[in-house]
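*** Protein under study ***
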Amino acid sequence: MKKMVSVLACALSFSALADWSVDSQNSSLSFVSVKNELVAETHHFKQLQGSLSDAGELKVSIPVSGIETNIPLRNERILQYTLLSKDFAAITATAKVDMAKVSALKVGQTLTVQQPLDLTLLAQSQTLSTSLQVVKLSDKQLLVYNTAPVMLDLTKFKLDAGIEKLRELAGLKVISPLVPVSFSVNLTQ
């Protein structure tokens, strides 16, 4: 009996330390573009990939080919002129997560954290501050989402020329370089 309890305890502790994977089907990332100062449109990426290790290393990759603006020509132009998809296949986000706090959550509990997030877009990286909610949905499922949009200043990622090219091709007066981003990431073990 003692042996069985020891084996069960080892199995449970192993499960608690197993890496988490991004469930792409139940995760989302959307952003808003504003053109001509009055027209706001919501877009999204079709896929997120990534993991959260038992050491708290969060890595999320957003394949740029999965951009969806609901206008195929605009998708192509953004990939060609702004995201430079031939040279940069993905946008990446990394963070160091306090796994002790996450592990302490009971099913149904929520944790609110201010989390620095390192974002790499093209060859430029920025550290952004995000306010996150972490919800333990089950022993093998977490939901992490931002409580307020992350405001990306695309000029800090040196996307000015690409934005200007899009503006010119679309015949617009202006495309705002400030882009609000919202995400919801479902992690499973």
The longest helix spans residues 2-16.
